[in-house]
Amino acid sequence: MTNRRTRKAAALNRVAPFLRDESGVMAPHILIFFFLMLLVGGIAVDLMRFENKRVAVQQTMDRATLAAASLENDLQPRQVVESYFATAGVESELDEVVVVQAMNSRTVKAKAKVHSDNYFMSMMNTPFLEADNRSQAEQRVTNVEISLVLDISGSMASNNRINNLKTAASEFIDTVLDQDTENKISISIVPYNGQVNLGPVLFSKFNVTNAHGNVDTREDSYCLDLPTSTYSSTALSRTTPLPQTPFVDSWSSTTQGTSYVAITGPTISGGLYSNMWCQPNEKTYVSVHRNNRTALKSQINNLIAVGATSIDLGLKWGAMLLDPGSRSIVSEMSAAGEVPGYFSTRPAAYGDKETLKVIVLMTDGENFEQERHGDNYRTGISDIWQTGSNGYMSIFHASKVDNKDATTLCNSRPFYVPHLNAWHSRPWNGSTPGSKDCYKPNPSPPYTNVQRLTWQAVWAQARTNWVAWQLYARALGGSSSSSRNAYFDTWVNNFRSYTDTGTMDARLDQVCEAAKAKGVLIYGIAFEAPAGGASAIKGCASSPASTYFFDANGLEIRTAFALIASNLSQLRLTQ
Question: In angstroms, rounded to a whole number, what is the distance separating the alpha carbons of residues 237 and 434?
Answer without folding.
Answer: 56
